[in-house]
Here is the input.
Amino acid sequence: MFILNRYYKFYKNNGLIKTITKIISSPLRYFEKKLYKKKKNLIFSKDNKEEKFDLIYKQNFWSSMESVSGIGSELKNTVNLRKELVEIFQYYRFENVLDAPCGDFNWIKTIINDEIKYLGGDIVSDLIEKNKNKYKTDNINFVKLDITRDKIPDSNLMICRDCLIHLSFKSIKSFFRNFLRSNIDYLLLTSYELKDNKKEFINLDILDGDFREINLSKKPFNFPEPIKKIKDKDVESTHSGFYCYMNLYSRNQISNIIKEL
Here is the structure.
């Protein structure tokens, strides 16, 4: 009876068509939620990052029809990022770029030309092999890479987009320390800011493979002002309470911060 009353009130406020749509879609949403929970439980039953991210990839857990790396890697969400990255490549004369994690190479492939030597790294072996088979050229290559522990290849710039948001504080610290063992000059990282600046942004710890937004200027990271901020997630940001940026930092900035972590 309660459900009937609820739908009747909805009908009075929204009309017949929207009510029918709601009645039809409600069971679908219920089963979608159950399937999502089942997939998530399976992912977090695994002990290490590689197994978790391998399952995320194989299950298309981030639910994008365009990219297995998720909706954030769709072309509509990288319009401004791609435009400004080209300008950064030219301004700093970057010739070697490491993109890790590279995912399925969906968006960045549109701006990599013969003047850039590109190396994509990812923890998912199958994804790396598919990328190699599909995209490898004289100046584009891919390598299996766990950025928290494996030796990070040399480059002028490392792009680390939408990665730290899926890692625990412990793994993030491991990555930064590992980065400082590399010979990379600049690091481009994802960072979020609240649209409502009256609220306090609190960085939360998570299990590897989960998700939350992070703000690199807040505790426990306390990063300084970046050299450059690039507005990211053109469409996705319009539907959330956050602005998303790619922040460019120098090696020296990272080095000074890591001492405090």
About this structure: The chain has seven helices and seven strands. The chain has a mean pLDDT of 89. Residues 2-43 form one domain. The CA atoms of residues 227 and 248 lie 5 Å apart.
